[in-house]
Amino acid sequence: MATTPPPPASILGTLGDFTSRENWDNFFALRGTGDSFEWYAEWPDLQAPLLELLGAAAVAGAAPEVLVPACGSSALSERLYDAGFRRVTSVDFSRVVIADMLRRHARARPEMRWRVMDITDMQFADRSFDVVLDKGGLDALMEPGAGTKLGTKYLNEAKRVLKSGGKFVCLTLAESHVLALLLSEFRFGWDMSIQAIASESSKKSTFQTFMVVMVKGKMSVVQTVKSSLDQFAEYCNMKQANAVIRAIGNENIIRESYSSSVDVLLSLRDLQLGAIGDLKVIVPGRRRQFLLGEQETSLYCYKAVLLDAKKQTETFVYHYGVFIVPKARAQEWLFASEEGQWLVVESAKAARLIMVFLDSRHANIDMEIIKKDLSPLVKDLEPGNPEEEAPIPFMMAGDGVKQRDILQEATSEITGPMVVEDVVYENDDGGQGSLPEKMFRRLIFGRSSGLVQSEALLIRDPPSDEKDKKNRSASATSKKRRNQRKVNCSMGYSSYRHSCLKGNSSIGSKDSLRIDHSFLGSSYHSSIISGLSLVASTLCAASASGEKVSTIVIGLGAGCFPMFLRGCLPFVDIEVVELDPLVAELAKKYFGFSMDEQLKVHLGDGIKFIEDSVAANHSVPNGRASNAIKILIIDVDSSDLSSGLSCPPENFVKDPFLLTAKEFLSEGGLFIINLVSRSSSVREMVISRLKAVFEHLYSLQLEEDINEVLFASPSERYIEISNLDTAVTKLKDLLKFPVDIESDIKKLRRLQ
């Protein structure tokens, strides 16, 4: 039967939406009956590669069971039948075209089977076919603007009805969005290859057809995509082919990373596709970190860990459960370490546990909204085949505060509500001096969703004969605080616990307590210190010569960081600029902040202070007051979060101030910003602005938070990057308080 020419534009115009059943019924009705139509790839071009492929798919000499989804009025099924492949089932959701095909072939080809069926919801049993042969079906579902939902549903069905070792053969134009879906959906457990369909007439087609073959293999195995496109250059549209070749190259880089020893952070979809094996089966001791949630499927994104209990017993309370860890406790040893996580699983008595870690993105979000957002995501991770829609048990760790004593609540016109409180965290085993438990003093800004703006360690002075034995360090104390919480994780199931400290509590009188200014409560402050390795040689020279290093800190907070800086680097002259007088008052009253010749505070606007300093330098003969290195640190949060910046306020990263900061640093020095943004586009904008102004830019990304510390310099005059190991050693020799510089500096990278 001859294939007719393409239908006129008037008929094509009836289609509109390629995913509409009604549109296709109208299309086939208007075309009439009795002939075939091919959108692309005629049988003479397909015959050789398809017959070779289907011949290889024969099982024990018997012809393979072949499914042709979205068959339309194509002659493909009848050509296969006439070539000897009699076990062909063709389906389409258009009743009009299936009725026509039955009339045309019922007598001449009685063994052919035709079904009216939606290919995204097929009524076939699992593992029914040896071959699923798609010719344009996926392309139709994936028209631009339609998204991937229908295409993904169809591919899931195709995988389901294929037998193990079966082949999904996709004849496609391989447009970028279609190919991207194929590459990602068949990444795990499939042997994938692609070739171009050559034209019989030796003329290159306007629209090149490709044959993508996926062989169903062992789940979780990752293999690179095989391509023979370079062998078809003579008969192939190489413009299309080159785009496919590039896409395959990028995909193979991804696949090689999965198959290597690199611990790639998987997505929920990767897990659903079999990246770690069959999710319906519990594999004792299986543990994998992954990301939950995407823009199209959930309100928020979450870091998570899947854990299958090491020992499968009959004493589990839960077959499956979800354990939520709030941001305040995410870095505790119990939740952050692999060993601790297994203790949580054991204590939870769950056969499979999904640990979900909240961070700054989830601040101030009602927990019921979080659970509602998580429920459909974690449902797909439930093992077995549950017949009933049983609710998934959610467990949650408390905020980690066992006792709290609010010292003062205050409100200023500039900062808004603030709270100063003393807290004791759960699971601490004792603190400095004679304290049975560590106590921390915190300054909280209400405008930032209850963010702990500053945290200081409270200590009691030991007897005089013990003072020489003390060797406290910020990093060691902070790490110990996190790592020593190795208790039964039933503590983690409690909701928020609030109780005030009493005067007769085990803490004892607080009159003898003081702030430990050798402690850094914020990890990004430690990163700022570590980043000074970039100018370590210059700092060493200044220390040796007695020259003071001018350091400006914009933002006082509780004053913990400037106080640490003064004690840690005695040769640094520190000037702090703070906009809010009440903040400065609280720092002095509750956090032991004090000023002297080395440490001064200026009340006022930080941007204006730097502008005035530059203007003052211009008034000095030769236009410059000093050639000494300067350090400028921006450590202030934003009261306006509408810009997407939590730290610093937007004006600090706009061109006018950046240019002023560059001029302030003269020919060298270091400009340091604590950057906090939930928006990747805002972050990229800030980076772009900094690159345009400063010749050198470095980033130190904190793993446990969204803080990123940026180090910029207008020239390489003081920068030492060629031998960071030596620079780290130099800086450590200068510091009066130990800081874990080595761990931080490994994360330092230059932003080109």
From TrEMBL:
Chain segments carrying region Disordered: 456-487
Residue ranges of domain Methyltransferase type in the record: 70-170
One GO term (biological process): methylation
InterPro entries found in the cross-reference section: Lys/N-term_MeTrsfase_sf (IPR051419), Methyltransf_11 (IPR013216), SAM-dependent_MTases_sf (IPR029063)
SUPFAM superfamilies, per database record: S-adenosyl-L-methionine-dependent methyltransferases (SSF53335)
Pfam hit, one: Methyltransf_11
Coiled coil segments of this chain: none
Any GO MF annotation of the entry: S-adenosylmethionine-dependent methyltransferase activity
Lineage top rank: taxon: Eukaryota
Keywords: Methyltransferase, Multifunctional enzyme, Transferase
Record's compositionally biased regions (Basic and acidic residues): 462-471
Protein family membership: Belongs to the methyltransferase superfamily.
UniProt protein name: Methyltransferase type 11 domain-containing protein
Organism, as annotated: Paspalum notatum var. saurae
Top-level taxonomy: Eukaryota, Viridiplantae, Streptophyta, Embryophyta, Tracheophyta
